[in-house]
Design brief:
heterodimer; A: alpha/beta; eight-stranded mixed β-sheet; 11 helices; B: two-stranded antiparallel sheet; 17 helices; 2 strands; 1% strand
Amino acid sequence: MAEPILSVRDLKTQFFGPEGVVRAVDGVDFDVFEGRTLGVVGESGCGKSVTARSVLGIVDRPGRVVGGSILLRPAGGGAAVDLAKLSNEEMRKYRGPEIALVFQEPMASFSQHYTIGNQIGEGIKLHLGLDERAAKKRAIELLDMVGVPQPARRVDDYPFQLSGGLRQRVMIAMALSCDPRVLIADEPTTALDVTTQAQILDLLRSLQQQKGLAIILITHDMGVIAEMAHDVSVMYLGRAVETGSVKEIFTAPRHPYTRALLRSIPTVLAKPRTRLPTIEGSIPHPFERPKGCAYHPRCAEIIGPVCEKFEPPAVNTADGRQVRCFLHGGAPAQEVAA
Amino acid sequence: MIAFITRRLLLGVMTVWLISILSFVIIQLPPGDFVDAYIAQLSSSGSQVSAAEAENLRKLYGLGEPFYVQYGKWLARIVTGDFGESMEWRRPVTEVIGDRLWLTLLLSLSALLVTWGLALPIGIFSAVRQYSFADYAFTLVGFIGIAVPNFLLALVIMYFSFVWFGASVGGLFSAEMALAPWGWDKVWDLMKHLPLPAVILALGGTAQLIRIMRANLLDELRRPYVVTARAKGLSEFRTIVKYPVRAALNPFASNIAYLFPYLVSGSIIVSIVLGLPTVGPLLVKALVAQDMFLAGTIVLLLGVMTVVGTFISDLVLMWVDPRIRHQMD
């Protein structure tokens, strides 16, 4: 397989609040390839969105990327740039032209005080150096590309004049305004109804085919992952517990958490009147992170004391997957202090 | 949009009309008719009014006729610019108020500019650097500014400028200029005297607006659209000024309506302390002396200013917030 555009290694982002430190992202690894979609899946609060923001260096205070590397390979080849080491000022020229974000709430993610043309054109003027008129022309082309009807008229509309589906299309147009190579979509369809969801996913897929975009798709919806992703990373409490191709993960999940997640998808083939399996318990409070494997208190396949005392290392399995679970090997090397 | 503005204008005229009734009621309030009061007042100051003169006055204002006839006659005279005669000053009310109105407006606008010029940047800074040393310092100064009455501040400043510099800071003109006819010298004199009262009048409002701006901006800074702007690669300064600050400006716009009358009525004590030739002290004197035409006129004036302020504030809000602009279509 080709070199990944973006390689994230051991990414750690922590929030330094008055009550203590929250380890929101605690050692995440993943690779994103041109023309492929990496699905990042997990329950709310597992660090998916913070991972996305960490990659762009826009984590809100008091949060901060404290460790790891974010390697971006330049378009023409050459040595990779470690985004985690750049200053905020240096990082700015990567936001938009290299990596762009699509957000969950298209209503709240637009300012209501400016027209969509103004908000799309802003990045174009900044990064591509176009003037007002050329930026507006490009904004209209982008709106046309993402399927907004009557783009020349819509460009002067305000976000509150658009429907939810249109707003998300405009959001995608804005993200693509400077031809990024990596698109991070943070729950892009969560706020939309099912029909619109399917349309937006189709749009993302066709844009990916046209432009060879590398997409990181963050979601809690296994259905969306099955439909969109090539590779999947399952996150639990700030860590990727299992990473592999979508087919392998759906047909033969290795990590007990992945198995539990897949069991809890409703299916039309289930016998009527059977209860949908759920995962016992709930995500622990960030300050009460369990010792050892963070998942062990909820795990149905717990081995024994080893899970309670040691943090399982990432193990590369023979079929090219990565799993963090003692069921699949790995020496309990380092004892984790609570 | 034009329909909206027309409707607002008509409503404004209606409101002014209601205020005029209120003003007239104030004029009518003292016992007896005001010609009696007028004669009593004049005789107490030693001059006499002949019976014929009194009869003329009664006829002029329709005294003895029903209330609505009296009101109608009064209103008809106001429309032509005749606001009656001040009993205390024995001159037409328009002449008594005269320059004071423009000086009041000038002082109020200066105070408003100082208020905004200080409150906007400080409020923004305090919010962006929340819990920093400077934020705490501004918060402390701000609360002192809210808690200390303006007139006390005026007294303190007057005291120290007299003790240290031997200068009297009262008034808007120096003694030799106060009665001089208008000219460049007088304008220059006014410019030299204007800043201090403007700053004193502005401080209370500034402290309040800093708190409002800070609180609003703190709300806005946490909104997702700020993250969107950052994700576009905008600089932090541009991100904050273009998006959250713009959204936090709404309350400033809606505040204009109350500022106009407040700057007149809220500044009465300061104006008296500093000896400013503005409308405020005149209203107090007129009320104490039961100088009814003068008092009624000033009340009417304050009402009109509130209505005009509200109208301006509506226009500014429409300009600032496109949601309001589009709701009206």
